[in-house]
Amino acid sequence: MAPTKKGGKKTAATQEKKKGGFTKVAKADWKEGFKKKQVGVSDMTLLTTISNEAVNDNLQKRWTNGEIYTYIGSVLISVNPFRDLGIYTEEIISRYKGKNRLEMPPHVFAIAEGAYYNMQAYKENQCVIISGESGAGKTEAAKRIMQYIAAVSGGQDSSIQEIKDMVLATNPLLESFGCAKTLRNNNSSRHGKYLELMFNDRGEPVGAQITNYLLEKGRVVGQVDNERDFHIFYQFTKAASEEQREMFGLQGPETYVYTSRSNCLSVPGIDDSADWKDTLKAMQVIGLSKAEQTDIFRMLAIILWLGNVQFEEMDDGNSKVSDSGVTDFIAYLMEVDGSVVEKVLTQRTMETQRGGRRGSVYDVPLNPAQAGSGRDALSKAIYNNLFEWIVSRVNISMKPRSPHTQIIGVLDIYGFEIFQDNSFEQLCINYVNEKLQQIFIELTLKAEQEEYVREQIKWTPIKYFNNKIVCDLIEERRPAGIFATLNDATATAHADPTAADNSFIQRSAGLSSNPHFESRGAQFLIKHYAGDVMYNVSGMTDKNKDALIKDLLDLVAGSGNSFLQGLFPDRPDPNSKKRPPTAGDKIRASAGALVENLMKAQPSYIRTIKSNENRSPTEYDSKAILHQIKYLGLQENIRVRRAGFAYRNTFEKMIERFYLLSPATSYAGDYIWKGDPKSGCEKILTDTGIAKEEWQMGVTKAFIKNPETLFALETMRDRYWHNMASRIQRAWRNYWRYKNECATRIQRFWKNNKEGLAYAEVREYGHQILAGRKERRRYSLLSYRRFMGDYLNVGPAKSPLGETIRTACGLANESVLFSARSQLLVSKLGRSSKPSPRYLVLTDKAVYIVVTNNKEGKIVTSLERKINLAAIRGVALTNLRDDWMAIQGPICEEGDPIISCVFKTEFITHLMQTTRGQVTISIGPEIHYNKKKDKQAVIKAVKDETVQKDDVYKSHAIHVASGEPPNSVSRPAAKRKAGVVRPITKGKLLRKGGPSTDQQRPKPVSKPKPAAQALPGQSKPAATAKYTPAPASTSYSAPAQSSYSAPAPPPPPRAGPAAPPAAPQKPMYKAKFAFQGQEGELTLAKDDEVELVQKDDNGWWLVKRGNEEGWAPYNYLELVPPKPVAAPPPPPPVRRPVPAPAPTPAAATPATGKKPAFPGTNLNKPQPKPPITGPKPGAAASSSAPAPKVGGKPPVPSAVRPPVGGSKNTPGSVRPAAAPPGQMDLAAMLAKRAQHMN
Questions:
Q1: Can you give the pTM of this predicted structure?
Q2: pLDDT of residue 11
Q3: How buried is 309 (Cβ within 10 angstroms: 0-12 exposed, 13-18 middle, 19+ buried)?
Q4: pLDDT averaged over the chain?
Q5: Has 415 been annotated as catalytic?
Q6: How far apart are CA 541 and CA 373, in angstroms?
Q7: Catalytic (active site) residue 188
Q8: Does residue 744 have a known ligand-binding role?
């Protein structure tokens, strides 16, 4: 039994030692005082006093505080709270996901998480065994196990989600048909269920299977007071639709004998109408069709109406049916004749087996008691077989969608029962619980102690009660147990149930030698592990017989309802001398199979306890709970858990799981230990630092005492892969850091050169434009001065200001070449002109002047003027070093803009490049411009050395100091200082130092890699995953240079002219079958070869044979393999190198326009029969199904058969496949591209 998974608790804060030796302690959190205090102990192995009273006191404290779950090691104890605690939400599921048992409080989700983790980690089947008496919460625990596994098992595939939905849908479906209200539980399971969830290797559910055990079918026909029949009968009679009521003659549950006999029609806390909707929804999720649902409801109606068949005693003592209308309606539901039903229920056909009249057949009338017994037997048989059909149908729907590797089983079976009247049903139920208790003892107590002795482990033995003696009392064949004695009594007096009961009483006297059995007349006592139970013998042998009489089987066989006949597939052979299996044989075989399945899996245990008999959320019955604690053996379980070891496994399994944790056993993921598995396992536990008293070495297994130790090993194993991944990531990051640093240096050098050259070329072009005609500013000649162009980021590299300017200009697809701040000369009325700030933008289409104004307290940026490049005639500048220029645009009222811009030379350069030199650049002592449409003006440039900075405009004159000579050029680039190469030393894996110290540093010597060894139990070393690169394309690589220089070989002779390529072969197809064509079609004989002309998506191809052309079905054709092309002859030998003439290019072969054969054509497949050809385009097909015929309805007292109409099948229309899109016209595409470029 493997405890659940990885590492122990994580500490709230890690302690780090500083250089001064001080230890950093985590600061206390004031919220600690407000956390929920733990009541009692969550794991009862920590109890100071081990006694039943101490266990009960701890459970009571926790139950009162709303904590219903408690551990005994890995066993979960659950006390039913009889109220909703809100502890099964999605949030709670997420808390337990991926956590081990010690990290979270006790919960049923922790058991589910442990089983799911162990299945994935150890690749072993798991099972969850839930035990306890009726009403203790077993069914609820099983539902929560399935809820958790469905939530955490992952899988995005629709089929996986479908399986999850079906598994969850089985709960309401099987609860409706298999649960009922009893005196001890409102939702008591009256059957056993073992659900096996099947998972693939990724831990995703791919299927499920349910095994059913011993449905209590006697509850269908009778219950004690204040109990109910199965839930489905009350849901059906209360919430069925009007159509169903009319079809099956349904009335309320109070009108049927089977549902009203116990005087309990409603149960507090159970809404039959809401549960009916859940049942119908579950049927849809499972995949039950409407017809199948109708058949199920028909069987329920038959059972309900059978209960209403009453018998009257006639003068001769025989029985007759009181109301033949009821039997007629039952016959209508069963689709048989009404008189046959009445005869089968009141008479029995007997065939003589001995005497002179052997083989004679007699109709023996039945008295009312016998007739009622036969009626009830038929009802029980129909319901039992219906339930088994539902379970088998659910299994069909949940069958695995793909191969499965592991299984998690969840056992939800009826609990131990002690009633006032205990009969054969209680004997079977308690027998199964004895078997489950025996499994618990075998796996947790007896087997554990025997294993310690066998493995020579030191520990303290614990005494316990072994219930094998009770199981043998019930199931043994020799000496005969109770089941065998019942079979013998039934066989000797099979015709008379009373005589068979008396025979059993006489035979059971031989069982008195067993100390757990006492015979008391018409009763007998069995001392079960859960208490003494008194059983009544009356009717026990008849229930054990479990067989329908031949008349009832013939009635079912003669039914016109195929579903009803299918419920009774196996009829006993009357001529067979072999005794048919009894109910005792069946339950014994089922219990044996269940035990065998459970023993193959690693079990997890949930022991449920019922807090009180009144289902009260506030009552804690200490006396009853003490009794449950005693018979569940919790005290002995605690003692064994404290004295034993929590985990054990073979040396080979331990090494396979944990060999990574020791450097002596692993290297780079390979197993390298050369010693025996035992020494290797001991080395692992020693190297991990686990205390010696925490583990022991046996003969074949290693034993670990506490689960915390195992969790620590699992945490270290998980951390190993994280550490390896971190080391790889660290080396990879250092590699990229080194690579990026190298790239940065290369890029920096490249930018300083290549980009500098590009910018220098643009700047040099600007110098050529000025052509020594204008004085220069000193800053314009700096070596690092570059013409960047878009200084305001109006183009792609956007900024908030650039976005504002771009929006104001309304730029869409224009490329921004230049943008900068400037000043525009603005004329004022009655005053001299004055410079005003503007934004100047040059694109590939126009020049934009943008202004920012303050309007009503808001800053507004707007376009002031736009001048198309085609309208610009020239640009006028002075010959001094000022920044003014006039853009000579079209003659208009606005005139030419006079702009001062620091980057004027760059603006003119980009303008000349964009317009391809079509703009005139005028440079002189004056700037001539159009002030208005018909008015010209002049601005003079005056040298004024008093101007310290920039220039000054005043009264049509620009005052500026002297600048650099007009013939000045840019300064040469400054030389870099010769410095030391800076090494790249960032990163922990890179050593300090640089190239200068490489020769002084000794080269590291790598250790040889240890040879990988085979894991214990394997013949070959475990393969480690290695990266295999994809094969690269063939390329020539120069060989390494050698010190030896061989003489150069003579040049190879020139090849002759290349042969023209062979013409492409036409795809040919061969007819697989003969085809008789009609008009427009090509008639084909088998093995005729045709040429493909055109393919259509409708299943017909246009083919050609000689001069004939026509349509043929594509699935009659198969591709003919192309003939191999002969290799070209070798070139003739050349005696001397003669220059060959240029090869003549081969003529281009026109495309044939034919597509290759579709992929997947198998030429070696055996030829099947000719397929059915579909219609050619335009043909239509239609079909219709005839309406089902329904027989007539006889008159019934309480039901009217609903009209059933025929159903018409409308054939679905098949859409032709869409034609492939056409290719773009090449000429149109090229024209469009040329237009875009212009």
A1: 0.55
A2: 39
A3: buried
A4: 79
A5: yes
A6: 14
A7: yes
A8: no
Please tell me which residue in 58, 78, 80, 185 is annotated as part of the active site: 185
Q: Which of 112-121, 207-216, 1038-1047, 1061-1070 has the lowest mean pLDDT?
A: 1038-1047
Domains defined along the chain, listed by start: 424-546+582-602 (1.20.58.530), 647-737 (3.30.70.1590), 814-960 (2.30.29.30), 1069-1112 (2.30.30.40)
> Cα 1049–1050–1053 angle (5° rounding)?
130
User: For residues 51 and 56, what is the distance between their CA atoms, to the nearest angstrom?
Assistant: 9
Is 566 among the annotated ligand-binding positions?
Answer: no
CA pair distance 156, 771, nearest whole angstrom: 73
Instruction: Out of 417, 448, 775, 906, pick the active-site residue.
Output: 417
Q: Is 1035 a catalytic residue?
A: no
Helix residue ranges per DSSP H, 34-157: 52-64, 90-96, 108-122, 138-152
* Amino acid identity for residue 905 in this structure: T
To the query of whether residue 789 is one of the catalytic residues in this protein, the response is no
Confirm or deny that 137 is annotated as ligand binding. yes
DSSP 601: S
Q: Is 832 a catalytic residue?
A: no
The answer on whether 751 is annotated among ligand-binding residues is: no
| Residue 962 is among the residues annotated as catalytic for this protein | no
Helix (H, G, I), strand (E, B) or coil at 377: helix
Q: How distant, in Å, are the alpha carbons of 282, 341, 486, 580, 646 from that of 577?
A: 44, 30, 19, 9, 54
* Catalytic residue from among 70, 78, 125, 139: 139
Q: What is the pLDDT of residues 372-396, one digit of tens each?
A: 988 999 999 999 999 999 999 999 9
Q: What is the pLDDT of residues 845-854, one digit of tens each?
A: 999 999 999 8
Instruction: Say which DSSP state 1123 is in.
Output: P
As a whole number of angstroms, the distance between CA 270 and CA 230 comes to 13
Per the annotation, the verdict on 987 as an active-site residue is no
Structure token pair of residue 930: 């159009």
- Name which of 204, 196, 203, 197 is nearest 119 in CA terms: 203
Rg (CA), the chain: 48
> Please, is 15 exposed, middle or buried when counting C-beta atoms within 10 Å of its C-beta (0-12, 13-18, 19+)?
exposed
Does the annotation list 331 as a binding residue? no
